[in-house]
Amino acid sequence: MSDPRPSSTAGASPSPTNTAPVEHATEVRLSQLLTLGTSISAAVILLGLATYLWRHASERLDFTAFRTHDAELNTPSTIVAKAMTLDAIAVMQLGVLLLVLTPIARVAFTLVMFLVRRDWLYVAIAAIVLVVLSLGLVGFRLH
Amino acid sequence: MTAGLLVTLLFGSALVAGFAGALTGLGGGVVLIPIMVLLFGIDLRYAVGASLIAVIATSSGAAAAFIKEGYTNVRVGVLLEVATVLGAIAGAVIAAYVSKDLIAVVFSCALFWSAYTTLRPLKPLPPDTHPDRVSQYFRLDSEYPTKSPDGTPTMTAYRVHAVPGALAIMLGAGLLSALVGIGSGIVKVFAMDRLMRLPFKVSTTTSNFMIGVTAAASAGVYLHRGQIEPAIAAPIAAGALGGSLVGARVLPRIKTLWLRRLFAVLVICAGIELLRRVIQGGM
User: CA-CA-CA-CA torsion for A79, A85, A86, A88, nearest 10 degrees?
Assistant: First the structure.
């Protein structure tokens, strides 16, 4: 893995506990995961957007009032099912859904990264974030 | 408005918001909401949902570059995430029992004050200062890319301070921002810049790293309520992603003083937007 950062110079005098350059290599994996997630969702969004504009560009849209739209667009499983029929709006929503999942995957991957480093303190911290995050999601669903 | 025109306008606005949001670590939602509501006549509920998507796009798009270049302090990010997610959930729980209008007015005053203080930078603490015990325990001290006086790129070490205070601020102010739905990024940058004394570019990029998670945590609710409208969210996501990638390329070249000015402008926008919602009864 190439490291795009310049190396530390003697004048910068890093602290004795500074292990940043070594750890940076694993953090680059994290950035690759984000690139992967955003690239896939961008591709799906652009596909849906292009199809949508191809068919509906001259239609009039009005979002001045909030209406409950097609409920199939509101839950992950139905979004996937509808996107499979190549419905342009559902494909756009699928891309948006993949984008939302990217940071959540990032948190999970951060946990794995600290596990690989055997950095138990941060394994615990990342686990707390993940647990609280999922508790929050579950709690909200109950409303 | 025709679908073609609306999609183009949304894409263009999100391009600008993603650019500014990636540079400042704020995600750019505060710019997008007033544009969508006031200029394009979109209902606030759709606008809030779409701006959440813009924040996720900006965060994820730019974070890849910021981590690779070594700006983001991943440890600080993960540690502060504990406080943000707890604050966000506590905010959601007590939301029903408090006067949002009052909180919004107080919070917007705090925003104007933080915009003012951001323009009066504290010097980052040099590496030869006495290390902070808590920061040492969590191994937060790190280094980030700078240019040496002769223009060659180098890494500069920095120390991290006042971790318990920063966590407390993030929890408290994070709770308030969750209540009013604005300003979580501002709280993050403020805590890292003023209390932890991180270099400003480290503060903004580390905030950028975190805001995607904060936004994704509540995106599920908005999706469920039907506030994520594909015809709005898709062009916003695409534009914000594009803008954030440009912002990520510009950050290493931009002077910190200009970054602080841009940050202050966005914070003032957020304060005004908050007051506007109180007056119009949109809280």
Answer: -50
